Amino acid sequence: MKAVLFCLVLSFSTLVLVSESATTRLTYSRWINLLRYAHSSLQRDPTAVEDRQYNRTDHVQLIADSILKHFFNDIFTPSFTEDGELVHNYDRVPVDFLIMLDSSASIGSENFLKALQVLSTWIDILDEEDFSSDQLRVSMVSFSEPDQVIHEFAFSPALNKSSVISYINSTEYHAGSSTSTAQALWLADTIFSKHARPDAAKVMLMATDGWSHDVLELPFGVLWPAVRLRKLHGVQVFTLGIGDKINHNELEAICSKPIANHLFEVDDYDMMLEVLEKVKENQIFPF
Length: 287
Ligand SMILES: *[C@@H]1O[C@H](CO)[C@@H](O)[C@H](O)[C@H]1NC(C)=O
Ligand SMILES: *[C@@H]1O[C@H](CO)[C@@H](O)[C@H](O)[C@H]1NC(C)=O
Ligand SMILES: *[C@@H]1O[C@H](CO)[C@@H](O)[C@H](O)[C@H]1NC(C)=O
Prior knowledge:
Organism: Bugula neritina
Oligomer: single chain
Strand content: 15-25%
Bound molecules: 2-acetamido-2-deoxy-beta-D-glucopyranose
CATH topology: Rossmann fold
Protein name: COL12A1
CATH class: Alpha Beta
Distance between the termini: 50 Å
Helix content: 40-55%
Strand order of the largest sheet: 5-4-3-6-7-8
Largest sheet: 6 strands, mixed
Number of strands: 8
Low-confidence stretches: 15-49
Keywords: Signal
Shape: globular
């Protein structure tokens, strides 16, 4: 039975990927990435990490540029006067932003604190006025084992930037023994369909260090809810993979296309903090 289900999931995922790549031009960098990960997944021993053909400093800059462009600039598009003065443009579409954080045991409590720091820093880059004017609402889900898929806090006009940061910072570490990514995506589906504003741009960021364990328990694993989020609710889905135990293909299947603009992969939590420091340095205005 499980084998049949697995084949179904596989063929469904192939269908989804093929249909989406037909509309998305395969970029050169994506091919390089695919080759790089095909290569690294063949060599799973730790020494393979030393073989990587990229320079850490350059990689930090590359990811920072991508996050700055595709997350901050594209979603929180700033407007300028003719003299180059920033104007707050409150006529633009409001944004509902859902954060999904893996809190499974593989992360470890020390890295979990770093993950919270990553998310707090991410929020800190955003403009306080976007929160106070209700232009931006943030909500968060943490997920590990099936009974530890938790809606930590909901979209609310009452949350300003500092309350969102302190909510994130006080997220409890559940250290669940598995990673219920599919179930967490179904919760995201409910949150966006029931609690997001109909006129808002919907954005999601999923941070994980591993791969889903509930792929055979729910129909089509992560694919069905991910496709629903993107196609039915129009959510722009970003995935953030941290460390060398991530499942690159799964993160690709979850995020929006083009993949290169929506999937960010870093070696560890410290590297992600460096990336966000670069984003902060390179930002030339509040968003
Ligand atoms: C990585 O690139 C930076 C500049 O982009 C350079 O300064 C540094 O020496 C390089 N590191 C290695 C190990 O090649
Ligand atoms: C944010 O909200 C909290 C709680 O409602 C409030 O105590 C705090 O003063 C607010 N901060 C700002 C900067 O408005
Ligand atoms: C988060 O909480 C820790 C203490 O638990 C504190 O040291 C840190 O400054 C807080 N960070 C933010 C961004 O509030």
